Amino acid sequence: MSASRRRRTLLSLASVAIFLALWELLPALGLVKPLFTSSPSRIWTAAQWLFANGFWYDIWVSFSEFALGFGLAVVIGIVFGVVLGWFPTPRAMFEPFVISLYSVPRVALLPLIILWLGIGIESKVALVFLGAVFPIIVNSMSGVRAADETLVRCARSFGASERQVLLTVALPGSVPFIITGMRLGAGRGLVGIVVGELVAAQAGIGHMMARAGATFQTDKVFVGVIVLAIFGLMLSKGLSTLEARVDAWRPARK
User: Fold this and answer.
1) pLDDT below 50 — which residues of the chain?
2) 177 lies in a domain?
3) Which residues of 215-227 are buried (b: 16+ CB within 10 A; e: fewer)?
């Protein structure tokens, strides 16, 4: 590890330690009310109780719903985005719908989704899918349309078909755009899963947070927030690592 990287790591750890110390100290001194802010020690105690009393099942439910919705969004979003980006006729037909739905908050569709799909797993999968798919479509479409025109002309001059140009030039060059769309979609998908479970669910992290909040159990609410934050951070780091690998294939910029 280089000296600069070690320094950044130490600064990050120190800032987190100072934040946690202040968070623990302020309620203990009576400067803020624990009912509204809790503290790291109280949250740790609540986490131990939750994990000993079935919280693993809530985590499994939420992450299963997220995995299904996000997986569908990745597959459909990439295929649909590449088609819209490469072929002008489908783009002219469907781009207005994509842009319009991309701009509509998915929370606004929640009453309709519950009406159509109920309060089971289907509605939460649908919310995750709708939250994640449009950023992936838009970024995939932009990536394909941003293909290097020089490389495209060169491939065509050597007799490459449209399919070969798409698969060997446009699609590999759009991978960083696609991964960026996946990162944006993952964040919106997590928002969808929490909103869906807060409003109408029988299990899940959001359902636990809703029950805890209704009874002023702030410690348990923070446990749910921290679990979601850790999962989102791990997912973002994983996609960032994948994006760095893809960028390594590209020529260095001057």
Assistant:
1) 251-254
2) yes
3) eebbbbbbbbeeb
